[in-house]
Amino acid sequence: MRDTIYDNTYLEGNKGNLTKLPIILCAVGGIVLGGIVFRLANGKVNIPINFEHITRKSEATIESSDNIKEFVFKLFGIDMYNPITILNTNYPYFKMFYDKNYQPYVAEKVQKELSATEKSQTKPVQQPQASIPQKPSEPAGGQLKEASSSITFEGDVEEKDQKNNPVVSSGKINITNETGFKINIKKLLNEPLKLAPDKKGPKILIYHTHTTESFLKSASELGKSNIPSRTTNNKYNVVRVGDALINNLKKYSIDVLHNTTIHDSDYNSSYVKSLNTLTSYVDKYPSLKMTIDLHRDAASEGKLRPVKKINGKNFAEIMFVIGTDAKLNNPKWRENLKLAIQVQARLNEICPGIAKPIYVSKNRYNQHLVNGSVIVEIGGDGNVIDECIRSTSYLAEALNDVIFRKK
């Protein structure tokens, strides 16, 4: 496209007509533009204006030749037989408007829209049950609000109230059933386990989806407020209890792995991260008969301290949590429940009262990879760490008796 407005070559042979320019501009421009403005202002299109008559009248008045019209267009760089020259003529004005006015306006508008979009995308997600620091640590003061249970976070966040779910019982076996699935305890208790066949390699994996869940350091902290419920100090969190369980399992010559990766720096993505860890172990060790995601429980308000006194000593209570396929595919959940029922039955025999009802959840909790996948919760955030360590001796005995003892 051309960048010039006027083509001066048209003026050279028409200098004699330049004296008529004001009359032409006034007659043609005034009448034509005035009619256009009037129409636009009133929104009407039915006002009859005979431009041909006006042109003939103007030409008669100024006694111009038939090429006056063509001269006027050429004067402004327009070829009346080539409409593209209209845009060509006005290109510099369009460019000036874009460079000086429109471009800054558009840039400002786009920036505002981008800022609004980024703000909406980075708005913090509401966490109705827990407020966890990005990097878990001992807070300087103030008690972190805990979920009612450490099992309540997987994918979409929803609150569970274990007290309002029905309890299924058979003998001394109790199950809190959050789902609508029918559970035949007696049948599962007597069926053989379908765990991985005997292969050389580790038999049990212990890991922690909520690695920073902590306990009281000593009995002196009982009843005190502002006691942290999370810590990266492995002397006082679930990692320490995992170590104790491994030591007790080794007494039965059971080969055990322990992963201590922190998966809950971002609490709501804990199960996504721990699934990656679990998958890597399952792929590497086909010998695994059981995977234990070791947690501790917590209350929505205050501290939870499920404890059983045995021979004058306090032992933290133990609860199995079994995920189902109510939300996500999990074809192994009944085999996992079968193992939990049989271990609970053995716990009831060797240490009556230490086992809490098994909790059957709508969530899956990464228990879909292998048979024998369970969550084990030992104690709560109100238990002293020593109480939880003591309980691992009974759990190790029950696991050995159910999984490895020759029947």
TrEMBL record:
<keyword id="KW-0472">Membrane</keyword>
<dbReference type="Pfam" id="PF07454">
    <property type="entry name" value="SpoIIP"/>
</dbReference>
<feature type="compositionally biased region" description="Polar residues">
    <location>
        <begin position="117"/>
        <end position="134"/>
    </location>
</feature>
<keyword id="KW-0812">Transmembrane</keyword>
<feature type="transmembrane region" description="Helical">
    <location>
        <begin position="21"/>
        <end position="41"/>
    </location>
</feature>
<keyword id="KW-1133">Transmembrane helix</keyword>
<protein>
    <submittedName>
        <fullName>Stage II sporulation protein P</fullName>
    </submittedName>
</protein>
<feature type="region of interest" description="Disordered">
    <location>
        <begin position="117"/>
        <end position="171"/>
    </location>
</feature>
<dbReference type="InterPro" id="IPR010897">
    <property type="entry name" value="Spore_II_P"/>
</dbReference>
